[in-house]
Amino acid sequence: MKLSSPDFEKGKPLPRFCAYHSENRSPELRFEDVPEQTKSLALIMDDPDAPRGTWVHWVLWNIPAETRVIKKGEIPPGAVAGRNDFGNTQFDGPAPPSGVHRYYFRVYALDTLLQLPRGSTKAELLKKMHGHVLASAELMGTFSASH
């Protein structure tokens, strides 16, 4: 499975429009080689370089299995949003207090739809996904406090 974006390259800076203090819009994401048996997709974006440990920016599940593109600033119809560490059920972009941080987008192909209420956390999602992941892919971008 592959995850890519026309808005940034792997290991390169995320675009300014993604920043929490700018437009706060998610980049376009593209999925390839999704397993045929996939019943739904899940997506997590987090920052392992946050001062207090990994900071969760975006949590989505029950993304329709046939989804191959999540357009910039959008959530696919039918997808369910979880709670991020800003306390919101949406994408909230980079806002590093200092230095350069890494932002990981991870997509998971699942063999089921998840029975999980809107606003659930990343930890709750990971627990529900356990044993149901057919494949996964990740894409990392960076963002600096001085961006």
Automatic annotation (TrEMBL):
CDD domains: PEBP_bact_arch. Coiled coil: none annotated. InterPro entries: PEBP, PEBP-like_sf, YbhB_YbcL/LppC-like. Pfam families: PBP. Gene3D superfamilies: PEBP-like. NCBIfam families: YbhB/YbcL family Raf kinase inhibitor-like protein. This is Kinase inhibitor. It comes from Methylacidiphilum caldifontis.
